[in-house]
């Protein structure tokens, strides 16, 4: 799979148990398409607040 922006090969990252495709060249980040339907983990309000503080 290649980056839709710059066509460089995408790297696969693991993020909180989910796999995400990202491009180191241009910073594109996209969520991988899963073959199986997995429950979507909704970010908790506390996590959102923590992330906001760190930003
Ligand atoms: Zn790219």
Automatic annotation (TrEMBL):
Domain of life of the organism encoding this protein:
Archaea
Recorded protein name is Transcription factor zinc-finger
Organism of derivation: Natronoarchaeum philippinense
């Amino acid at each position: 799979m290649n980056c839709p922006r710059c066509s460089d090969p995408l790297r696969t990252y693991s993020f909180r148990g989910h796999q995400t495709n990202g491009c180191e060249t241009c910073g594109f980040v996209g969520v991988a398409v899963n073959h199986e339907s997995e429950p979507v983990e909704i970010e908790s309000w506390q996590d959102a607040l923590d992330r906001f503080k760190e930003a």
